[in-house]
Amino acid sequence: MVRFLLARPIAVFMTFMAMIVFSVIVLSSLPISLLPPIDVPQIVVKVNYPNASPEAIEQNVLSTIREGLITLNGLEEMDSKAGSEVGTIRLTFDYSTKMELAYIDVNEKIDRLTNSLPEDLGRPEVIRINTSDIPVARVQVIPKEGIDEVEVSQLAENVLKKRIEQLPGVSLVDINGKKERIITVSPNDQALAALGMSQQNIINAIQNSNRDLPGISVKDGQFRYYLRLASRVDTPDDIRKLPIRTNDGAIIPLQKLAEVNYETKEMLGYHLYGEQESLVITVHKQASAKMNELMPELKESIELFKTDYPQVEFDLTQDQSNLLNAAISNLETSLLFGGIFAFAVLFLFMKDYRLPLIIGVSLPSSLVISFLIFYFFDLSINIISLSGLALGIGMLIDNAIIVLDNITRKRDEGLSIFEACVEGVNEVMGALISSVMTTLAVFVPLVFLSGISGALFFDQAVAVAAILSVSLAVAFILLPMLYLLLFQKSKKVLDKEEGPFFKRILSMYEIGYSKISSGRKIAITCFMILIPLGLMVSFLLKTEGLPEIEKLDATLEIEWNEPIGALENKGRIQALVKKLEGTYQQAESEIGVRQFLLFDGENSIQQAFLYLLFETQEIKEEQIKRISEHIKSNYPEASFVLGDAPNAFDQLFSSNSPYYEVRWKDLSSKEPVEEEKMDPWLSQFPTQNWERGPGLQKESSVVFSLRSDKLATYEIPLSEVQDQISKLFGTFTITDIRRFGEVTPIRLKEPGERFENLLRTKTVSASDSASYELAEFVNYEYEDHYKYITADRGGIYQSVNILDENPDEMKSDFFKWGQSKDLGVEMTGQYFRDRENLIQLVGILAISVLLLYFILAAQFESFIQPLIVVFTLPLGIGGSFLVLWIFGASLNVMSAIGLVVMLGIMVNDAILKIDTINRLREKYADIEEILPEEGLEKALHEAGQIRLKPILMTSITTILALIPIVFSSGLGADLQRPLVYAVIGGLTIGTITALYFVPLAYWFFVPKKKLKTTAS
After folding, report:
1. 910 — phi, psi (to 5°)?
2. What molecular functions are annotated in GO for this chain (predicted)?
3. Of the candidates 993, 983, 952, 989, which has an alpha carbon nearest to the alpha carbon of residue 346?
């Protein structure tokens, strides 16, 4: 095959050029994203029910929806939480579920349930979670001093949002902090009382003047006209002029009896930029869009906004493209330094500028052609797939060096240039294919991990498979062809003498080899002891998902645990931000209820979220301590989480479920256990190291109870008192003005007094028109009650989160505690998912090792020789662990990728070393038949000399290419540094392993006799 292709170099060269051209065209159309467009198998159903208690929402809404959704296909978990005015149901599906169909199914079931839900309840929102839902940036819209904030909200909603949506690649634009204009009617109670009238007279007058007559038309000859009442109201002036008839028949304008004004609707939530109220526009990209093209367009649009709308200031914050740019920059750095150092090392070892030139052509060619495979597998260019390409680059250089070195060695043996290219490739072809297959055998099975990890590994596995497959084609076809084209006209006689640099290295190797050969038993014992010692270093390493990145931003999530309003919440956050003034670069806050369409978390007035960006890490740490002390000293009831701001990875891998949760259900009442019972029971809980779950958290409230006896005595209808209470303390909407899709509510203005005063000053009328104080018929008391009602598919539950280090050891105690109180107890949480994933990972890695063994057994046609390769792996892993520990790094996703890179190169070197030994044993078969040890010794010694140069070159080029990252700074370097430590540590030990451990193990474990069959 190689001979056939090399006989037609022009045709092969043009074929590769055509593939490169197609790849460049494909590359221009590939989407560029931060993360792969993964469907997270979760759907959230949100319910907004104003003025409803948690009990009412659970009983009237959530329980009905849960019953309707329990039959969904692929549903694994269902959890709901009912709070004051809001409720959420989180549906978790199996990862094999088609989320597009699940989303449609959920919406259809919600539509069917509409008739079973309260009439005054709006349709529940159904939110589907996707990685593309993570906003790529946030646009801050800050009104300048004196500018109407409602007009700015209309500008953002009607103009800015639409202009951003028109940018290519934008899928959704979401806004928080919008303010709406309403018309308020504030009745004059004294004037009404003097005229013997009530608020209802005003309400009736406004409602009657704002009615449409739909579908009514009049005929005028051959024409027909639709009828429109001219009595509709549009503005506060129209309402003020409305006539009202008094009881004595007089007609007076409404403005004599009430004040009517435009006002801003009371806010349940705010957005702050710094200390100032503002709006925020979050921008979400399409899955197929290129982030590197979208972000410049967005920034250009913001500059245009600044010119077009001078009454508003704009700023761009939390740009998530920084992570992607860092990954692309790291790949470019790897290519640049890989090429430079490969050139330098090859020049030192081979002394010919043409060899580095060949590698310089092959590296970018392989990389570009691999994007064709991206296109066919519908992959995007993202951090995950780019890390897969980075994995393959190390082995790509490795393959190129091995092939070029073998061709050069064949020329040194006297073969013609054509035969040297053919024989040089054929001799290492089997070993290189096996090494690539073993790397894929270790890596590709990780795709079958369940959950989001497996979904992420798919992109990485395809990227690795793509670049390694292409690298083999390049190494077997393009490299020898380029060698043939560049060297065929060379008249220079090849110098068989090695250069002085390599001679010194060779002499050092010989010294080490002779010492190990003279004491093989001691040497093999030392290596065997090093295997468990190296692996034990892992116990000294801390484990985490992502490496510690020097983040200059921090977030504060706080729950005040007090019945405060949104305005008070805003004031507290503004005071906190003012206290930090001058220390931060950016600060933005989400306070109370958020208006985002895609927000799937809890919407509570008592919650706030603060984001801060600092200039240096030292300032950040100092201010975090300051914030913590401020909250603890001023708001001891508050619970808060303060730490690093989550990036896109954190948001993707974050879990809403607690680590270890003990849940219980009251088997008799199927309701939450009353507080009077629950608190004593919790004092008997098997461990004291716990915290209350949502279903046990308490909040203060005021409970009104109506005095039925007095209502009956004074002949006052119950509905009269309820109606008065709803007007005083609820949001009473008289009617809505609708114009061209814009809705302006007309509402009774809420009195700003304390509720005790209102009960004493407001009256209700009896059937004889006498008026009585409302307080006569209403009793009130303060009490604590459960803040949330939590439920799953089995019904209402309460829970505690266990904080012990080994919570599962107390499982039997938890069951006994529940049984003694007639409670059904179950354990759940991230602990069990992590344990399941770990068991699955161990099983997959065991399968990977078996695959690796089978591939090598087929390559070497031996059951023993593959074990030598397998035993080299823990030595390299131990070296990686050692370097990670020395530099204070952790075991994380990036260091794990580094381990795979290192193992791929180590396996490659070990396979080639054993393959060379096998071929040399065949060469010295006659000697080995007579003197087995002498024949084997000659094969081992010569194989070491032959493979010394490529082993050193691949290790040195890889290590030198990675070293600059160790001394770099910034987000990209922080991410890649653990990977670099793992590769450098593993290759340093791995090089010694390939040079000395492989021949040692071969000597002891492979029979010392002529091989009947050998792999070539």
Report:
1. -65, -40
2. xenobiotic transmembrane transporter activity
3. 952
- Following DSSP, what letter does each residue of 955-1015 receive, concatenated? HHHHHHHHHHHHT--SHHHHHHHHHHHHHHHHHHHHHHIIIIIHHHHHHHHS-SS--SS--
Residue type, position 625, single letter: K
Q: Report d(CA 591, CA 597) in Å as an integer.
A: 16
CATH 3.30.2090.10 for domain 187-258: yes
The encoded tokens of residue 4 equal 């056939």
Task: Centre a 10 Å sphere on the Cβ of residue 904 and count the other Cβ atoms it contains.
Answer: 23
Taking only the tens place, the pLDDT of each residue in 220-239 is: 777 777 666 655 678 889 88
DSSP 226-276: E---TT---SHHHHHT-EEE-TTS-EEEGGGTEEEEEEEPPPSEEEEETTE
Topology of the domain covering 2-30+324-487+507-544+835-1005:
Multidrug efflux transporter AcrB transmembrane fold (1.20.1640)
Residue written as tokens 């190169």? 905
Please report how the helices 321-350 and 932-966 are oriented relative to each other, as an axis angle in degrees rounded to 10: 140
The whole-chain average pLDDT of the chain stands at: 83
Q: Which residues pair with 655 in a beta bridge?
A: none
Say yes or no: domain 553-647 is CATH 3.40.50.300. Answer: no
Rounded Cα distance between 705 and 483, Å, is 94
The HSE-up count of residue 642 (CA atoms within 13 Å, CB side) is 18
State the Cα–Cα distance between residues 827 and 787, nearest whole angstrom. 22
CB 735 within 8 Å of CB 206: yes
Burial class, 438, CB count within 10 angstroms (exposed 0-12 / middle 13-18 / buried 19+): buried
**Can you read off the two tokens belonging to residue 5?**
């292709």
Q: How many Cβ atoms are within 10 Å of 450's Cβ, its own excluded? A: 15
Round to whole Å and give the CA distance between 487 and 358.
11
> How many Å apart are CA 884 and CA 347, to the nearest integer?
31
State the first-to-last Cα distance of the chain, in angstroms, to the nearest integer: 16
CB 241 within 8 A of CB 253: yes
- Residue spans per domain, the chain: 2-30+324-487+507-544+835-1005, 187-258, 553-647, 661-734+748-810
Which of helix, strand or coil describes residue 864? coil
| Residues 318, 587: Cα–Cα separation, whole Å | 11
* DSSP bridge partners of 556: 610, 642
For 847, the enclosing helix (H) or strand (E) is helix 830-860
pLDDT of residue 796: 92
Strands 181-187 and 742-748: parallel
* Cα gap 797→789, rounded to integer Å: 8
Residues with Cβ within 8 Å of residue 370, at least 6 apart in sequence = 23, 389, 392, 463, 466, 467, 469, 470
The single-letter code of the amino acid at 177 is G
Instruction: Say whether pTM exceeds 0.90.
Output: no
d(CA 903, CA 893): 15
Secondary structure of 403-441 as H, E, C letters? HHHHHHHHHHCCCCHHHHHHHHHHHHHHHHHHHHHHHHH
pLDDT at 1014 over 80: no
Distance CA 484, CA 745 (A): 82
Q: Note whether 187-258 and 553-647 share their fold.
A: no
For 583, phi then psi, to 5°, come to: -100, -20
pLDDT digits (tens, 9 = 90+) for 812-859: 999 999 988 888 999 998 888 878 877 877 787 788 778 888 888 888
Give the separation between CA 435 and CA 395, rounded to whole angstroms.
9
Q: Considering just the CA atoms, what is the radius of gyration of the chain in Å?
A: 37
Ramachandran angles phi, psi of 757, nearest 5°: -65, -40
Q: Which fold has domain 661-734+748-810?
A: 3.30.2090
Structure-block tokens of residue 73: 């296909």
Mean pLDDT for 875-894 is 86
Give the tens place of pLDDT for each residue, 695-723: 888 877 777 778 877 878 777 887 778 77
Q: One-letter amino acid identity for 372?
A: L
